[in-house]
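Milestone 3.1: sequence recovery, worked example.
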């Protein structure tokens, strides 16, 4: 159930024909990336998955050459730089005793995006690194390049070990979604509405993730639709420790679940787990400060078919307009794209639960809004606020404002 977007991403950057694709083949011991002497073989960033012992599955991001030329080349470089902030680690390939503006730009971009990086001197069999060059790079970047070539298998394990040490643990060591909230033997009721926006024949990813986490905590999961919730609660031998609902059913579910039973949503659970909870808690009350003509940005992490019951594109805009009584404008961006407008054009940014992206990707996506002082919220907390149960939806996690 864990898609590629949930795995640590390691980007490989460097000039054309510096062996970026060859390095992926070398590290994976497979011919999975196209290798050619022709400059510019790799165009858009290409993703490949492999397992690193001690880390787990990672996604290699093979990018276009940072020295590409022409109008198309500049577009390719732009795509590479768009991928950089979404990476958990960057390998910057240097070679031919050359370290110029393209390499410095990547280092500066890594520092600006707070992405750790390693320097790898590639193709050392063709161009031996000079000591004075290595010293110069070390003075400029604070690290000495690791010299290697893909014709010698002895470099594979030392380089993999460097990668393992440089990759932040937060990229692959995750606390449970409900860690510290539920215990062994607890009963958790999951409310999963089935409407036209629900996928055919399966549950949505946040529901699957929460269900797995309940089982990992040796608790018991009871799953029902909102229409069967009242009867389900009556049939339980004891009150549940927690009820987790789809955010769009907050209004109906909150009327059924007794006040003494904690209630939250899948989206709120994900917001807490992804690391931006405090920003969402602080930003959500900005809903009541919206004015006529304000523009709201809705950010989806996945792409899907839109229906008349779509929570982000239909229900939230309708409820926000009704709650505020204001004439509001809404923009939507999907995937990891950024909006065409500057963030300062927006009075509020509302992010989905982010079930298909890593915490680093989510933080990078919202960083421009937070840096610009634009309030941010997420689907679950927005809907809790609009339904008058903002504090209730967070109470099970303790003092949310302090978090």
């Amino acid at each position: 159930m864990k898609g590629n977007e949930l795995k640590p991403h390691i980007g490989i950057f460097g000039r054309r024909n510096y062996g970026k694709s060859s390095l992926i083949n070398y590290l994976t011991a497979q011919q999975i990336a196209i290798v050619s002497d022709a400059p510019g073989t790799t165009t858009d960033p290409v993703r490949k998955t492999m397992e690193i012992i001690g880390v787990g599955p990672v996604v290699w991001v093979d990018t276009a050459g940072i020295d590409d030329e022409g109008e198309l080349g500049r577009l390719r470089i732009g795509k590479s730089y768009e991928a950089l902030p979404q990476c958990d680690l960057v390998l910057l390939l240097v070679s031919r005793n050359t370290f110029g503006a393209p390499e410095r730009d990547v280092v500066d971009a890594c520092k600006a995006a707070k992405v750790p990086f390693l320097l790898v001197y590639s193709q050392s069999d063709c161009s031996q690194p000079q000591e004075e060059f290595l010293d110069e790079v070390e003075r400029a970047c604070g690290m000495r390049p690791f010299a290697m070539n893909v014709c010698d298998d002895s470099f594979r394990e030392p380089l993999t070990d460097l990668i393992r040490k440089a990759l932040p643990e937060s990229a692959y060591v995750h606390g449970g979604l409900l860690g510290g909230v539920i215990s062994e033997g607890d009963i958790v009721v999951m409310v999963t509405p089935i409407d036209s926006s629900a996928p055919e024949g399966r549950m949505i990813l946040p529901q699957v993730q929460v269900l797995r986490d309940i089982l990992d905590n040796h608790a018991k999961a009871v799953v029902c639709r909102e229409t069967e919730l009242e009867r389900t609660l009556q049939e339980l031998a004891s009150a549940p420790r927690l009820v987790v609902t789809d955010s769009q059913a907050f209004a109906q579910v909150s009327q059924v679940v007794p006040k003494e039973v904690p209630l939250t949503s899948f989206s709120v659970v994900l917001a807490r787990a992804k690391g931006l909870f405090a920003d969402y808690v602080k930003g959500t009350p900005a809903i009541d400060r919206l004015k006529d003509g304000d523009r709201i940005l809705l950010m989806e992490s996945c792409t899907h078919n839109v229906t008349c019951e779509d929570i982000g594109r239909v229900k939230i805009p309708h409820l926000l307009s009704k709650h505020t009584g204001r004439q509001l404008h809404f923009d939507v961006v999907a995937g990891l794209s950024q909006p065409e407008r500057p963030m300062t054009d927006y009075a509020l940014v509302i992010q989905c639960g982010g079930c298909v992206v890593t915490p680093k990707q989510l933080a990078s996506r919202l960083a421009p809004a937070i840096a610009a002082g634009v309030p941010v919220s997420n689907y679950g907390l927005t809907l809790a606020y609009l339904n008058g149960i903002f504090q209730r939806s967070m109470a099970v996690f303790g003092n949310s404002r302090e978090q």
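Confidence is low (pLDDT under 50) at residues 399-403. The chain is about 35% helix and 15% strand.
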